[in-house]
């Protein structure tokens, strides 16, 4: 999730009913076109899963709502850090209970992180935690436990790293580190994602597949009189245009997929809806992923040609201008972004010349995957037309988001993937988050999000060294090094970075919540802080 200059306009939209004091009780309805894949925090890893996982689970750390400032959650305070910067010691709040009634203890934290690291879990978050001492030995089957994870008593948890990591506290606030109870995972098995149990503000009480998810207040929740709502219903399978009509009739309170393209211009220019619309430029990048292990795409010149073939301005027109053209992988509001990076210019003639030099004077055939929620199929058609203009004949596979994610995370299946609704959005405000989970050797694995399946061990080593720059005064040098790393990746043309999204949300008149709660820079939607007018 990210930010930019349009915040001023968005803040103006907040004035009025959005700032009403939250009232306790009531319910809300949010709509999505696609069903949710899972609520297992070790597995679910997209913009739709994460806000819902936060309803059921908590981590030791979290962010102050609407900001990127860390604060304690399940921990009593921020951790004590050893002099060498490698060991973090947390004290757990006393008396916190899982939704099954059992008290949370420090060994649950050890279990949670061990589970994320376990290859059997197939967690896309594994790569974030391999820097924990003993993690790699555990992953490789050379150890039965992770030596760097300790619970000396029921209220104390410590984690030791192989080397200092400037972003590790951010990593500990990620959904992957949301605490799960071992006995419930054992009971539900592979179905834990549909039968989640955590310490969070809401409990999942119903999930008829393809229809809706119903969350109800956790009456034993420990945190600051939250949540305000008694119930949140997440309706799935609703076409965005149908959902919009439902909102105007008072049947839906929040459009999870945003304002549908067909109604966008009508809504933003209608003064009746001014107080219902919020906007923010996200810290994300929507991109076309190029699988470097498949056919002609193995040649960097072919990938560079594809970058030169894409007309980004045309794509942004398709989304009614709701984007800022991307020149490189990092968004402008991410630390480490290099404003001097120019990227690839739109140059079809140059693209044809590169293809000819690579041995493809007549182009080639390939496949382009996209999720089926509008406007993504139309964007895919635009990309298809641009590619056809330089001789690349791409057939489109338009599928449910979960199906696209599975194909993209499987080697040698998906040559081209339009990220669409799965644009990479910051997990935390540090450039390492745009490297390790999506472009490193660690993430070039089945089920991972390194869809280009690119692995450069030299760049990994540089990123590791940069992450160890934790001393005062090293921040600027660290960010400069990350800018250089992304410049090297851009030369490899693993993505076509197309735009950084300007996200619009639309809420009902009765829903109380503004930018901090509905456009949170980390969690996107913070349901525990939403309320409805009585």
From TrEMBL:
One Pfam family here: SBP_bac_5
Q: Cellular component terms, GO, for this chain's entry?
A: ATP-binding cassette (ABC) transporter complex; periplasmic space
Q: Which GO terms describe its molecular function?
A: peptide transmembrane transporter activity
Q: Where is the signal peptide?
A: 1-20
Q: Name the source's superkingdom.
A: Bacteria
Alphabetical GO biological process terms: peptide transport
| Protein name as catalogued | ABC transporter substrate-binding protein
UniProt organism field: Deinococcus sonorensis KR-87
